[in-house]
Design brief:
The chain is α+β, with helices and mostly antiparallel strands and 204 residues long. The chain has nine helices and nine strands.
Length: 204
Amino acid sequence: MQQQSAEVRGSAWPLPPDRTQAILEATKHVAATLKSGGHSFALAGSVAAYAHGVPVSLQHDADFCILREDAAVVSEALENAEVEVRTPPEDWLIKARSHGEEIDLIFELAQQPVTPELLGRAETLPVDSVRMPVLSPTDLVSSLLAAFSEHHCDFGAVLPIARGLREKIDWDRVRREHRDSPMPEAFLYLLELLEIIQKREAKP
């Protein structure tokens, strides 16, 4: 029994890998490669929320916004940095793999093209010691709301991000961008009910 207990406590039962740290290592590798090549980009998705200080647990891929016209040169730069790159059937992104983690390099956010203006609004923030452009809080949350649909509408994943960044977000702009979109409108109403954001003024 004593020997069995020792095996359980020791190397016979190794701890699971730290998924958050693995995703951060992949993010840093890709960002450092893009920075060194002078390519325009911005971190998006849950890792961007992490960079802004939201205490999220990273469990999925890392997302980067790039310009469609830069896809070929970005792919070449990543391949030269020993990052696996592949072109999926979807025509709005390319996929990469670093440190065993998936990386999405996106040309469109919820069917809206990534533009120089969007990238120009990005904020330079440290991500686990590497500084990189990160989508602004307003652009980040707006992009997450734009992805809501009848088939994919995970309010629970976006709620802590909206709550954590609420004082940094231009909510008037978010409302304008999603006017008459049922799922984003429903989420914004939920934020009002939870008193995360102020209720919009009633129309006369």
